[in-house]
Design a protein that fits this description.
five-stranded mixed sheet; alpha+beta; Neutral Protease, domain 2; 2 domains; Jelly Rolls; elongated; 22 strands
Length: 464
Protein backbone atom coordinates (compact mmCIF):
# COMPACT_ATOMS: atom_id res chain seq x y z
CA UNK A 1 0.00 0.00 0.00
CA UNK A 2 1.50 3.31 -1.09
CA UNK A 3 1.15 6.09 1.49
CA UNK A 4 1.26 9.75 0.48
CA UNK A 5 2.48 11.99 3.30
CA UNK A 6 1.12 15.52 3.76
CA UNK A 7 1.93 17.99 6.52
CA UNK A 8 -1.09 20.24 6.78
CA UNK A 9 0.52 22.67 9.19
CA UNK A 10 3.20 23.42 6.61
CA UNK A 11 0.97 23.77 3.57
CA UNK A 12 -2.03 25.75 4.81
CA UNK A 13 -2.44 28.97 2.90
CA UNK A 14 -2.94 32.18 4.81
CA UNK A 15 -4.08 34.70 2.24
CA UNK A 16 -4.96 37.87 4.09
CA UNK A 17 -6.82 40.48 2.09
CA UNK A 18 -6.15 44.14 2.79
CA UNK A 19 -8.75 45.50 5.21
CA UNK A 20 -8.41 49.02 3.89
CA UNK A 21 -9.25 50.04 0.35
CA UNK A 22 -5.92 51.63 -0.38
CA UNK A 23 -4.12 54.20 1.69
CA UNK A 24 -4.72 57.81 0.74
CA UNK A 25 -1.78 60.13 0.32
CA UNK A 26 -1.31 62.86 2.97
CA UNK A 27 -3.88 65.59 2.47
CA UNK A 28 -6.09 63.44 0.24
CA UNK A 29 -9.50 62.12 1.32
CA UNK A 30 -9.89 58.39 1.82
CA UNK A 31 -11.27 56.64 -1.28
CA UNK A 32 -14.88 55.53 -1.15
CA UNK A 33 -15.52 51.76 -0.98
CA UNK A 34 -16.61 49.86 -4.05
CA UNK A 35 -20.40 50.05 -4.36
CA UNK A 36 -23.07 48.26 -6.39
CA UNK A 37 -23.81 49.77 -9.78
CA UNK A 38 -26.07 52.83 -9.62
CA UNK A 39 -25.10 53.88 -6.07
CA UNK A 40 -22.89 56.93 -5.70
CA UNK A 41 -21.16 57.37 -2.34
CA UNK A 42 -20.89 61.15 -2.54
CA UNK A 43 -24.57 61.43 -3.47
CA UNK A 44 -25.51 59.35 -0.40
CA UNK A 45 -23.48 61.61 1.88
CA UNK A 46 -24.80 64.79 0.26
CA UNK A 47 -28.42 63.64 0.56
CA UNK A 48 -27.94 62.85 4.26
CA UNK A 49 -26.28 66.24 4.75
CA UNK A 50 -29.24 68.00 3.13
CA UNK A 51 -31.63 66.11 5.37
CA UNK A 52 -29.58 66.98 8.46
CA UNK A 53 -29.53 70.66 7.53
CA UNK A 54 -33.33 70.59 7.21
CA UNK A 55 -33.74 69.20 10.73
CA UNK A 56 -35.67 71.80 12.72
CA UNK A 57 -34.31 70.76 16.10
CA UNK A 58 -35.92 70.08 19.45
CA UNK A 59 -37.84 72.48 21.68
CA UNK A 60 -35.71 74.69 23.92
CA UNK A 61 -34.81 73.11 27.27
CA UNK A 62 -35.95 74.72 30.52
CA UNK A 63 -32.46 75.75 31.63
CA UNK A 64 -33.78 77.82 34.54
CA UNK A 65 -34.96 74.62 36.22
CA UNK A 66 -31.69 72.71 35.96
CA UNK A 67 -30.31 73.43 39.42
CA UNK A 68 -33.64 72.80 41.15
CA UNK A 69 -34.02 69.47 39.36
CA UNK A 70 -30.48 68.38 40.22
CA UNK A 71 -29.34 68.36 36.59
CA UNK A 72 -25.96 69.69 35.57
CA UNK A 73 -24.47 70.46 32.18
CA UNK A 74 -20.94 69.77 30.96
CA UNK A 75 -19.98 71.10 27.53
CA UNK A 76 -17.39 69.56 25.25
CA UNK A 77 -16.36 70.12 21.65
CA UNK A 78 -19.23 68.08 20.22
CA UNK A 79 -21.16 67.05 23.32
CA UNK A 80 -23.55 68.83 25.64
CA UNK A 81 -23.81 66.36 28.49
CA UNK A 82 -26.69 66.51 30.98
CA UNK A 83 -26.88 64.26 34.02
CA UNK A 84 -28.33 64.08 37.51
CA UNK A 85 -25.60 61.69 38.65
CA UNK A 86 -23.12 62.95 41.25
CA UNK A 87 -19.71 64.05 40.11
CA UNK A 88 -17.12 61.27 39.94
CA UNK A 89 -14.06 60.49 37.81
CA UNK A 90 -16.18 58.04 35.77
CA UNK A 91 -19.01 60.50 35.12
CA UNK A 92 -16.63 63.41 34.53
CA UNK A 93 -14.79 61.34 31.92
CA UNK A 94 -17.85 60.83 29.72
CA UNK A 95 -17.57 64.08 27.77
CA UNK A 96 -13.95 63.54 26.63
CA UNK A 97 -14.84 59.95 25.69
CA UNK A 98 -17.77 61.03 23.51
CA UNK A 99 -15.87 63.96 22.00
CA UNK A 100 -12.98 61.70 20.99
CA UNK A 101 -15.43 59.07 19.75
CA UNK A 102 -16.81 61.48 17.12
CA UNK A 103 -13.35 61.76 15.56
CA UNK A 104 -12.78 58.01 15.75
CA UNK A 105 -16.16 57.25 14.18
CA UNK A 106 -15.31 59.49 11.24
CA UNK A 107 -11.97 57.75 10.77
CA UNK A 108 -13.54 54.28 11.10
CA UNK A 109 -15.88 55.07 8.22
CA UNK A 110 -12.98 56.63 6.27
CA UNK A 111 -14.41 60.14 6.39
CA UNK A 112 -12.70 63.46 7.16
CA UNK A 113 -13.23 64.40 10.85
CA UNK A 114 -13.45 68.06 9.74
CA UNK A 115 -16.80 67.15 8.22
CA UNK A 116 -18.08 67.03 11.84
CA UNK A 117 -16.31 70.12 13.15
CA UNK A 118 -19.63 71.83 13.90
CA UNK A 119 -21.65 68.72 14.76
CA UNK A 120 -23.19 68.79 18.24
CA UNK A 121 -25.05 66.15 20.23
CA UNK A 122 -27.04 66.51 23.45
CA UNK A 123 -26.41 63.46 25.64
CA UNK A 124 -28.55 62.65 28.68
CA UNK A 125 -27.48 60.19 31.39
CA UNK A 126 -30.42 59.86 33.77
CA UNK A 127 -30.87 58.12 37.10
CA UNK A 128 -34.62 58.55 36.57
CA UNK A 129 -36.97 60.01 33.97
CA UNK A 130 -39.05 62.48 35.97
CA UNK A 131 -36.54 65.35 36.38
CA UNK A 132 -35.71 65.19 32.68
CA UNK A 133 -39.37 65.12 31.68
CA UNK A 134 -39.89 68.33 33.66
CA UNK A 135 -36.71 69.72 32.10
CA UNK A 136 -38.16 69.07 28.64
CA UNK A 137 -35.42 66.67 27.57
CA UNK A 138 -37.71 63.72 26.82
CA UNK A 139 -40.10 65.41 24.43
CA UNK A 140 -40.37 63.30 21.25
CA UNK A 141 -38.46 60.44 22.90
CA UNK A 142 -40.23 57.05 22.92
CA UNK A 143 -40.57 54.85 25.99
CA UNK A 144 -37.15 53.17 25.77
CA UNK A 145 -35.75 50.51 28.08
CA UNK A 146 -32.04 51.41 28.28
CA UNK A 147 -31.12 53.95 25.63
CA UNK A 148 -32.26 55.70 22.47
CA UNK A 149 -30.98 58.06 19.79
CA UNK A 150 -33.02 60.55 17.78
CA UNK A 151 -31.39 63.07 15.47
CA UNK A 152 -29.17 65.27 17.69
CA UNK A 153 -30.07 63.74 21.06
CA UNK A 154 -29.11 60.51 22.80
CA UNK A 155 -30.55 59.27 26.09
CA UNK A 156 -29.62 56.44 28.44
CA UNK A 157 -30.82 55.39 31.85
CA UNK A 158 -28.11 54.88 34.48
CA UNK A 159 -26.94 51.26 34.42
CA UNK A 160 -25.09 51.49 37.77
CA UNK A 161 -21.88 50.47 35.98
CA UNK A 162 -19.45 53.08 34.68
CA UNK A 163 -18.30 50.91 31.76
CA UNK A 164 -21.79 49.98 30.63
CA UNK A 165 -22.95 53.60 30.86
CA UNK A 166 -20.13 54.58 28.49
CA UNK A 167 -20.92 51.57 26.29
CA UNK A 168 -24.58 52.56 25.88
CA UNK A 169 -23.73 56.21 25.26
CA UNK A 170 -21.22 55.17 22.58
CA UNK A 171 -23.79 52.78 21.08
CA UNK A 172 -26.38 55.56 20.78
CA UNK A 173 -23.77 58.06 19.58
CA UNK A 174 -22.90 55.62 16.78
CA UNK A 175 -26.58 55.50 15.78
CA UNK A 176 -26.78 59.30 15.74
CA UNK A 177 -23.55 59.56 13.75
CA UNK A 178 -24.63 57.02 11.14
CA UNK A 179 -28.10 58.48 10.74
CA UNK A 180 -26.55 61.94 10.36
CA UNK A 181 -23.94 60.69 7.88
CA UNK A 182 -25.72 58.02 5.84
CA UNK A 183 -29.40 58.90 6.28
CA UNK A 184 -30.93 55.80 7.89
CA UNK A 185 -30.28 52.70 10.03
CA UNK A 186 -31.21 49.91 7.62
CA UNK A 187 -30.56 46.95 7.75
CA UNK A 188 -31.14 46.65 11.49
CA UNK A 189 -28.75 43.74 12.06
CA UNK A 190 -25.95 45.94 10.77
CA UNK A 191 -26.91 49.20 12.51
CA UNK A 192 -27.34 47.49 15.90
CA UNK A 193 -24.37 45.19 15.41
CA UNK A 194 -21.97 47.97 14.38
CA UNK A 195 -23.16 50.19 17.24
CA UNK A 196 -22.36 47.39 19.69
CA UNK A 197 -19.08 46.62 17.93
CA UNK A 198 -17.80 50.20 18.09
CA UNK A 199 -19.13 50.80 21.61
CA UNK A 200 -16.89 48.05 22.97
CA UNK A 201 -13.98 50.16 24.10
CA UNK A 202 -10.97 50.67 26.30
CA UNK A 203 -10.56 53.92 28.22
CA UNK A 204 -7.76 54.60 30.68
CA UNK A 205 -8.72 58.21 31.41
CA UNK A 206 -6.59 59.53 28.56
CA UNK A 207 -6.76 57.18 25.58
CA UNK A 208 -9.91 55.81 23.96
CA UNK A 209 -9.95 52.72 21.73
CA UNK A 210 -13.20 51.76 20.01
CA UNK A 211 -14.09 48.41 18.46
CA UNK A 212 -12.12 46.12 20.78
CA UNK A 213 -12.67 42.39 21.09
CA UNK A 214 -12.82 41.55 24.81
CA UNK A 215 -10.27 39.22 26.35
CA UNK A 216 -12.43 38.54 29.42
CA UNK A 217 -15.84 39.49 30.86
CA UNK A 218 -14.07 41.65 33.46
CA UNK A 219 -12.87 43.92 30.66
CA UNK A 220 -16.44 44.73 29.51
CA UNK A 221 -18.73 44.56 32.57
CA UNK A 222 -22.41 44.56 31.67
CA UNK A 223 -21.85 43.65 28.00
CA UNK A 224 -22.77 39.97 28.19
CA UNK A 225 -23.25 39.35 24.44
CA UNK A 226 -20.66 36.57 24.31
CA UNK A 227 -22.20 34.82 27.31
CA UNK A 228 -25.65 35.02 25.67
CA UNK A 229 -24.40 33.48 22.44
CA UNK A 230 -22.68 30.69 24.38
CA UNK A 231 -25.95 29.91 26.17
CA UNK A 232 -28.17 30.27 23.09
CA UNK A 233 -25.71 28.81 20.61
CA UNK A 234 -26.58 25.17 21.12
CA UNK A 235 -27.83 23.59 17.94
CA UNK A 236 -31.58 23.98 18.55
CA UNK A 237 -31.28 27.66 19.55
CA UNK A 238 -28.77 28.86 16.97
CA UNK A 239 -29.90 31.63 14.66
CA UNK A 240 -29.30 30.95 11.00
CA UNK A 241 -27.51 33.54 8.93
CA UNK A 242 -30.74 34.29 7.07
CA UNK A 243 -32.63 34.83 10.35
CA UNK A 244 -30.12 37.45 11.52
CA UNK A 245 -30.10 39.18 8.14
CA UNK A 246 -33.90 39.41 8.33
CA UNK A 247 -34.02 41.11 11.76
CA UNK A 248 -36.19 44.23 11.80
CA UNK A 249 -36.64 46.95 14.43
CA UNK A 250 -39.30 44.92 16.28
CA UNK A 251 -36.85 42.09 16.95
CA UNK A 252 -34.74 44.22 19.32
CA UNK A 253 -37.00 44.12 22.37
CA UNK A 254 -34.34 42.21 24.36
CA UNK A 255 -30.60 41.69 24.22
CA UNK A 256 -30.70 38.40 22.30
CA UNK A 257 -31.02 40.03 18.87
CA UNK A 258 -28.32 42.56 19.80
CA UNK A 259 -26.02 39.64 20.65
CA UNK A 260 -26.60 37.83 17.33
CA UNK A 261 -26.20 41.07 15.36
CA UNK A 262 -22.97 41.96 17.17
CA UNK A 263 -21.68 38.44 16.51
CA UNK A 264 -22.32 38.73 12.76
CA UNK A 265 -20.82 42.22 12.43
CA UNK A 266 -17.79 41.10 14.46
CA UNK A 267 -17.23 38.12 12.17
CA UNK A 268 -17.52 40.31 9.07
CA UNK A 269 -15.17 43.01 10.35
CA UNK A 270 -12.58 40.56 11.71
CA UNK A 271 -12.50 38.55 8.47
CA UNK A 272 -10.71 40.46 5.69
CA UNK A 273 -12.40 38.31 3.03
CA UNK A 274 -15.65 40.27 3.64
CA UNK A 275 -14.07 43.71 4.05
CA UNK A 276 -15.14 45.16 0.71
CA UNK A 277 -18.80 44.15 1.02
CA UNK A 278 -19.22 45.19 4.64
CA UNK A 279 -17.62 48.60 3.99
CA UNK A 280 -20.35 49.29 1.43
CA UNK A 281 -23.29 48.67 3.79
CA UNK A 282 -23.43 52.22 5.28
CA UNK A 283 -23.99 53.60 1.77
CA UNK A 284 -26.92 51.20 1.30
CA UNK A 285 -28.73 52.17 4.50
CA UNK A 286 -31.50 54.14 2.82
CA UNK A 287 -32.22 51.20 0.51
CA UNK A 288 -34.87 48.64 1.38
CA UNK A 289 -32.92 46.07 -0.65
CA UNK A 290 -29.72 46.64 1.35
CA UNK A 291 -29.42 42.97 2.32
CA UNK A 292 -29.86 41.78 -1.25
CA UNK A 293 -27.21 44.23 -2.45
CA UNK A 294 -24.85 43.13 0.34
CA UNK A 295 -25.26 39.45 -0.60
CA UNK A 296 -24.84 40.33 -4.26
CA UNK A 297 -21.52 41.98 -3.42
CA UNK A 298 -20.42 38.87 -1.51
CA UNK A 299 -21.18 36.66 -4.48
CA UNK A 300 -19.62 33.22 -4.03
CA UNK A 301 -18.29 34.30 -0.64
CA UNK A 302 -21.82 34.09 0.80
CA UNK A 303 -21.50 30.29 1.01
CA UNK A 304 -18.20 30.71 2.85
CA UNK A 305 -19.85 33.25 5.17
CA UNK A 306 -22.52 30.72 6.09
CA UNK A 307 -19.81 28.17 6.86
CA UNK A 308 -17.88 30.71 8.93
CA UNK A 309 -21.05 31.82 10.73
CA UNK A 310 -21.85 28.36 12.09
CA UNK A 311 -18.24 27.77 13.05
CA UNK A 312 -18.09 31.17 14.78
CA UNK A 313 -21.21 30.87 16.90
CA UNK A 314 -20.36 27.29 17.87
CA UNK A 315 -16.96 28.31 19.24
CA UNK A 316 -17.46 31.93 20.28
CA UNK A 317 -15.57 33.01 23.39
CA UNK A 318 -13.52 35.73 25.02
CA UNK A 319 -10.11 36.31 23.45
CA UNK A 320 -11.20 34.48 20.27
CA UNK A 321 -8.70 33.62 17.55
CA UNK A 322 -9.98 34.92 14.18
CA UNK A 323 -7.12 33.58 12.05
CA UNK A 324 -9.20 30.69 10.73
CA UNK A 325 -11.71 33.11 9.20
CA UNK A 326 -8.96 34.75 7.13
CA UNK A 327 -7.48 31.46 5.92
CA UNK A 328 -8.09 30.18 2.41
CA UNK A 329 -8.94 26.53 1.84
CA UNK A 330 -6.33 24.26 0.32
CA UNK A 331 -6.90 23.24 -3.31
CA UNK A 332 -8.58 19.82 -2.95
CA UNK A 333 -7.38 16.81 -4.95
CA UNK A 334 -9.31 13.50 -5.19
CA UNK A 335 -8.17 10.75 -2.81
CA UNK A 336 -6.71 8.11 -5.13
CA UNK A 337 -4.60 6.26 -2.54
CA UNK A 338 -4.18 6.29 1.24
CA UNK A 339 -2.78 9.53 2.62
CA UNK A 340 -1.05 10.35 5.90
CA UNK A 341 -1.84 13.84 7.17
CA UNK A 342 -0.30 15.75 10.08
CA UNK A 343 -2.57 18.17 11.96
CA UNK A 344 -1.69 20.74 14.61
CA UNK A 345 -4.11 21.88 17.34
CA UNK A 346 -2.53 25.34 17.06
CA UNK A 347 -4.52 25.96 13.86
CA UNK A 348 -7.86 27.40 14.98
CA UNK A 349 -11.17 26.29 13.52
CA UNK A 350 -11.90 23.93 10.65
CA UNK A 351 -8.74 23.02 8.71
CA UNK A 352 -9.00 22.01 5.06
CA UNK A 353 -7.03 18.86 4.32
CA UNK A 354 -6.55 19.41 0.60
CA UNK A 355 -8.41 16.15 -0.13
CA UNK A 356 -11.60 15.79 -2.19
CA UNK A 357 -14.04 13.08 -1.07
CA UNK A 358 -16.89 11.64 -3.13
CA UNK A 359 -20.52 11.48 -2.04
CA UNK A 360 -21.74 8.02 -1.02
CA UNK A 361 -18.27 6.51 -0.62
CA UNK A 362 -17.02 5.48 2.81
CA UNK A 363 -13.63 6.55 4.12
CA UNK A 364 -11.78 5.27 7.17
CA UNK A 365 -9.55 7.61 9.14
CA UNK A 366 -7.17 6.42 11.84
CA UNK A 367 -5.38 8.75 14.28
CA UNK A 368 -2.08 8.44 16.13
CA UNK A 369 -0.23 10.78 18.46
CA UNK A 370 -0.90 13.07 21.40
CA UNK A 371 -1.05 16.81 21.88
CA UNK A 372 -1.59 19.27 24.73
CA UNK A 373 -4.40 21.78 25.17
CA UNK A 374 -3.64 24.72 27.42
CA UNK A 375 -6.60 26.22 29.26
CA UNK A 376 -5.61 29.72 30.30
CA UNK A 377 -8.32 30.28 32.92
CA UNK A 378 -7.10 27.20 34.79
CA UNK A 379 -3.42 27.70 34.09
CA UNK A 380 -2.90 24.05 33.17
CA UNK A 381 -2.54 21.84 30.11
CA UNK A 382 -4.41 18.66 29.27
CA UNK A 383 -2.82 15.80 27.28
CA UNK A 384 -5.19 14.63 24.55
CA UNK A 385 -5.55 12.10 21.78
CA UNK A 386 -7.93 12.42 18.83
CA UNK A 387 -10.76 11.10 21.05
CA UNK A 388 -10.37 14.05 23.43
CA UNK A 389 -10.56 13.72 27.20
CA UNK A 390 -13.85 13.16 29.00
CA UNK A 391 -12.76 14.78 32.28
CA UNK A 392 -13.12 18.16 30.63
CA UNK A 393 -15.76 19.17 28.07
CA UNK A 394 -15.98 22.00 25.57
CA UNK A 395 -19.08 22.67 23.42
CA UNK A 396 -20.73 19.60 24.99
CA UNK A 397 -18.02 17.27 23.68
CA UNK A 398 -14.71 15.98 25.14
CA UNK A 399 -11.97 18.61 25.14
CA UNK A 400 -9.57 18.13 22.24
CA UNK A 401 -11.78 15.67 20.35
CA UNK A 402 -11.11 15.84 16.61
CA UNK A 403 -13.98 15.76 14.10
CA UNK A 404 -14.06 15.34 10.32
CA UNK A 405 -16.60 16.78 7.90
CA UNK A 406 -17.38 17.49 4.28
CA UNK A 407 -19.45 20.68 4.64
CA UNK A 408 -22.86 20.83 3.02
CA UNK A 409 -23.45 23.12 0.05
CA UNK A 410 -27.18 23.42 0.79
CA UNK A 411 -28.89 26.82 1.33
CA UNK A 412 -27.79 29.20 4.07
CA UNK A 413 -30.49 28.04 6.51
CA UNK A 414 -28.63 24.72 6.90
CA UNK A 415 -25.68 24.18 9.25
CA UNK A 416 -22.94 23.03 6.85
CA UNK A 417 -21.05 21.30 9.69
CA UNK A 418 -24.02 19.30 11.01
CA UNK A 419 -22.77 16.02 9.51
CA UNK A 420 -19.37 16.21 11.28
CA UNK A 421 -18.17 12.87 12.68
CA UNK A 422 -15.96 12.77 15.83
CA UNK A 423 -13.13 10.35 16.50
CA UNK A 424 -13.84 7.48 18.87
CA UNK A 425 -11.23 4.89 19.79
CA UNK A 426 -8.80 6.84 17.57
CA UNK A 427 -10.74 6.11 14.40
CA UNK A 428 -13.82 7.10 12.45
CA UNK A 429 -15.69 6.30 9.28
CA UNK A 430 -17.07 9.07 7.09
CA UNK A 431 -19.64 8.69 4.30
CA UNK A 432 -20.27 12.19 2.98
CA UNK A 433 -23.70 13.05 1.58
CA UNK A 434 -22.14 15.47 -0.89
CA UNK A 435 -18.84 15.48 -2.75
CA UNK A 436 -16.43 18.10 -1.51
CA UNK A 437 -13.25 18.96 0.38
CA UNK A 438 -12.46 17.27 3.69
CA UNK A 439 -12.03 19.33 6.87
CA UNK A 440 -10.86 18.59 10.40
CA UNK A 441 -11.34 20.50 13.64
CA UNK A 442 -9.96 20.18 17.18
CA UNK A 443 -12.57 20.78 19.88
CA UNK A 444 -10.52 23.46 21.62
CA UNK A 445 -11.64 26.88 22.88
CA UNK A 446 -10.65 29.49 20.32
CA UNK A 447 -8.46 31.37 22.79
CA UNK A 448 -6.54 28.18 23.65
CA UNK A 449 -5.48 27.12 20.15
CA UNK A 450 -2.27 29.13 19.87
CA UNK A 451 -1.06 27.90 23.26
CA UNK A 452 -1.64 24.25 22.40
CA UNK A 453 1.27 22.02 21.39
CA UNK A 454 2.02 18.78 19.58
CA UNK A 455 0.34 17.15 16.60
CA UNK A 456 -1.48 14.04 15.45
CA UNK A 457 -1.06 11.89 12.36
CA UNK A 458 -4.09 10.73 10.40
CA UNK A 459 -4.22 7.95 7.83
CA UNK A 460 -7.09 8.44 5.39
CA UNK A 461 -8.17 5.67 3.05
CA UNK A 462 -11.21 4.77 0.95
CA UNK A 463 -12.91 1.53 1.95
CA UNK A 464 -13.55 -1.02 -0.80
Amino acid sequence: MKLVRLHAAAVFLFVLLAVSFGAAQPGEPEPFPALPEGIDAKAVLDEAETRAQAWRGFDELEYAQMSRLGIRLVRGKHIEFYTDLAESPEVNGIVPVLDEAVTQLALFFKLDPERYANWHIEAFLMSGREPFEIFGALKRAPDFKNGYALESRIWILDQKQAYYNRFLLLHELTHAFMCRTFGDLNPRWYSEGIADYLALHRWDGKTLTLGIYPESPDEVPGFGRIDRIEKMGREKNRKTLDTVLDFDAGDFSDNDSYAWSWALVTLLLRSPRYAEAVAAIPYLMTRRDANALFLEMLGEKSARLNRDWYEWIAGIGYGADFSGFARDDLPAEPLREPVELTLSPQTAGWQSAGILLSAGKTYSIRAEGRFKVYIGDEGRSFPCEANGISLRYNEEAPLGQVSAAVPSEKPRAVNPWKSAVPFKNSQLKLTPETSGPLFFRFNIPSNAARKSAGSISLIIAEEH
